[in-house]
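Consider the following assembly input.
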Amino acid sequence: MSEKFKTTRRTLAFVVVSLSCLTYLCGCGAGVHSATGLGSASGTGSSTNGGGQSTTSGATPTLAIVAPVTSVRIGSTLTLTAKIGDAVCVGGKWSVVGSSDSGSISDGGVYSAPPSMPTSGTAKVQYASNGQVAELSLSLLNPVPTILSVTPDKITSSSTTVSLTVSGLLTTTRLLVAGSDIPYTKVAGTNIRAVLQLPLNAPAQVPIQLSNPGPGTATSDVYYMSVSMALPKVSPVIIPTGEISLEITSPSGLPAKPVVTLDGNLLATTQLNATTLKATGYIPPWKTGALTLSLGDGSSVCNCMTVNVKPTAVPYDTASRFATQAAWGPRQDVVEHIQQVGLQPWIAEQMSMAPASYDVTGTFGNPRVRFLVNATSGQTFLRERIAYGLQSFIPSGGALNQMVTLPWELKLEQHAFGSYKQILMDAASTYGPAALLNLPGNNVRPGTKDVPNQNFARELLQLFSIGPYLLNEDGTLKLDSANERQLSYGPDTIADLSRVFTGWQAVTGGDPVYSSGGVDYSADLVALESMHDKGPKTLFGSVLLPAGQTAAKDRQQAIQAIFDHPNVPPFVCRLLIQRLVKSQPTSAYIYRVVQVFKDDGTGVRGNLGAVIKAILLDPEARAGDVNDAGPQDGFIQTPLQAQLALMNLLELKYFDGNPIYFPAYFGEDFWFNWTVQGFFSPTYTIPGTSVISPEFQLLNSNTILARSQFIYGVVTCQQRLFPSGNYSLYEHFKSPESMVEAMDHMLYHGKMPTATKEAVLSLSRSQKTLLAQQQIAIAASLIDDNYLAQH
Amino acid sequence: MLWSSKASGFYLDSTGSGYKAVVLVSMVGGNDCNSFLVPGTASSYASLQAQRSSIALDLSSYYQLYDQASGSLYGLHPSMKNVSKLYAQRRAAIVANIGSLPRPATKAQVLASVGEFPGMSFSHGQGVQQWESGLANPNCVSGWGGRLADRLMDKSGSLPPVLSTVGRSLFTVGSSVQAVSIQAGGPFVALPEDLSAHILQSATRNTASGNEYVRGVAELRKLTMQSQQVMTSAASSTVFKTIFPGTNFGAGMKSIAQIIGAHGKLAASRQLFYITQGNYDTHANQVTSQAASLAELDAGLGAFFEALAEVGMTDQVLVCTHSDFGRSLLANSTGGTDHGWGGHQLLIGGGINGARIIGKLPEFAIGGPDDMSGNGAWLPGQSIIQMTAGIAEWIGFPPSQLNELFPELTKFNDGPIHLT
């Protein structure tokens, strides 16, 4: 009823107002007012004018604007009412006060908010009637945005231009795709266009929403965009390690700035066409199995491809460890080749290769320089390792003249896989080792009491073949019934053997390249029969060399007798195992290898090729590939081995003659022995222990410090007279973490102790530049005790 | 063991008369005894000379030594100018025909049990091992310097008791002691501080490695890094007027003298030094090469004692020699001699009772009672054990400890060779 009344009254009032403004018709009841209107009624002063004219009872009624709400969204309307008390006023004058950008109001009190937000953010409306004025302030709110339609209706590409018809658009309106802002352009009043960059693995529906900021923050309903994209594909899916090149085809398009990572490592990209790119990079060779290939745009990533590392014959770490035994350590091409072909085929391959050439007439005329060149750039490592091993106990007198060393090295490399009998014959016929032991010129001296020089005869037995005491086949001492060791030979054998080796002379006037002081070091010794002791000789108490034989015949028979001595297999096998695999082989290991030395399977004794293969492939040699090394496994790197490992790791292939002089600083002037003792004793023990470690003999507080300094100097390019290089390591491993991981595999075959890793990592991280971080990680890994002691 | 932690606790008799040091000079390769020390009268020398006429020197070129106890004259090699003076000053003695012997034995006794006598191998390796171990056991794992050092750890101050200018040898190896090398300086860049600290920390951690090779390297490295600084700063504080020869041996003896001079600063009262010298494996051209090696030895020793006199320490430092073995009496066809067994050694300084020839020369007869090889390799008349035990006695070890250090000593009725 009241509603009806009001309507009636309103209509009436409208009519009345339209005729004349009759104040008395404004029946304003108490409590009905607009707070804003009341408060802001500047006509308060004039309210007294109407006060007395109120027909209603109570306090003096005042003109006020009444509104249902006091905020209005831009572009929308609000109906206002003017009242005095309960009475609705009609016929007065509605107006918007102030600037014209704050909206308009109709005569009927319908306020229309402006289409855009005025600077003030508010609007003031006024109602004036009969000299009375009421005002009301309204806050203006931003409009509610709406997505009316979207074209296209389905996304099939990672980058799609979409058009949206919208309302409520402001300059500050945000377009949110899956919750993230994306830029758009306004095409017309209600059309916007945006490029949607979606990850290739985006979900089937992507939410799109508009959002307007405050005042009156508002978002549109969510529009769900259908997505249907084809995932990218990679080719090839099976890759080798190392430098790789992949083609990624994405039918749904490529990100504008593609970011491709493989197993977390960034690859370089080149876009080939709209949907294809080429990604190149480096995969460390120790990676195996399935690797995640990711395509992203810098913010989102699609881990949507997988490539598989091509399986190798043996794991990288096995190959890496094997290269410390059968080659010269971490030369990457070599390690990776071993990894590809496997151990046994690699050995076969090495044995089928001819020895490297030693061109001593060219730039690398110095034979020792040539050796370093071969070890860092050549391919015949196993021969070199065997020759190096044999040189350790059958040295040549290189210190006499550098050219003395080469014929001996050439013979050892040539015969590295042949018969050990040949090696003994080589020692007796080559100038270098023979001259170190005074064999050339050891002539009979008729008419004097002088006896033949025993030097060669003694060391031939003692150091090269038999050793002083009788051995069992497992290398242990063969004791007599009284539990005493037994001499392998007596002074009488030495005396007679020294007579066998009389009459041999150095050749003079031969090859000038190898000649010095008239002696041709490259020519085998020649016999001068008149200087040979022609008497009968007895060796080992049972081998009789009849009187009257030539020097050559005596020599041949003596070497055969020595070669046949039962001590030779255990004596030589232990030395070779020490030089390749470990300083302290078990007696079972020695025994197994000795059986091969005695008979290679075809009835041949002393076949070094078969022996070396047996040594390298023995379970005891290979145990450390999988398991951690045992407490007494391993060997200390010699200075030359350590230097070659350093050079190979850093790819130092180009150098002058200077690097040959460095091992001497650490006690190993390689090939240049002054004495037959070589550089270390095969029975040397680590002080205070019973652990046999020949190479430890070269370690002392001086050399261990100098070796560290040397490594540090070379790695940081500060070592005087030593080459520095442009190391690919620095390109491949560009963080402390990746460099330490690389060192773990390249130097430690994956067994760098955790504590070592952490310490090296922390040292590396504390450096100021990336280069310094890389260098110190390399140096600290090379210096560490766990690396110097290979195991 | 941290040597530096010991310094304060054992600063006892580290200065003045309480200090004693032994310097062992190893004459590498086996010095030919038969030309080093010879009978000093023409008649007694003639037989020796006749048997090796191609290499024998004229007796008149020898320095004459007189041994009061026997009243005999001897000749010392013409290269030994300074040592002969020290002998005349009663500061030097020579131990004659000494070698590896596990027990006193005659030729027949040795031949009946050859395996028991490592000297019968006539080998460098065995020879050096016998001398440096001070034992007569073919498989020695410790040296006499190392074993003594194990018992001197509380008297060596801030450095270990054994120091070596040329790296390590069996001599320096004890059960708990590792020798420290005396740095000669070199062509390498200094390690930066953070890397040095890292190396020391890593080595310390690696001493607990499960692998014995890693552990061995780590122990050495740890000690090295700790000791280097201590030693370098101490040695550089000693300055001598004496000019040392410019040879390697001279430089090494100078470093040793500097460290001895700094013993107070190091709080050390007992130190053992090891140095090698020369190339005495004279299978050929012995006359020239032995003379050169001995001349280098003599010049270095001369300068060393001159420097010790500067600091008044001549009687506190004992120099002794080792050599792999003596050499054969007979010359060989290349002007040299071959491996022997017994030989002669020097003892100089240390306030010993000098001007003595201790023991006697062998009987220069091929096939005689001392010839063990047919070419004149001598059966030693005295054992390494006796000489080494005598040095230990000089250092101050009581008889009970001598028997412990040298278990075979009790087999010799004469006991140790007394030096004073």
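Residues 1-17 of chain B have pLDDT under 50 and may be disordered. Ask yourself how this observation constrains the way the partners meet.
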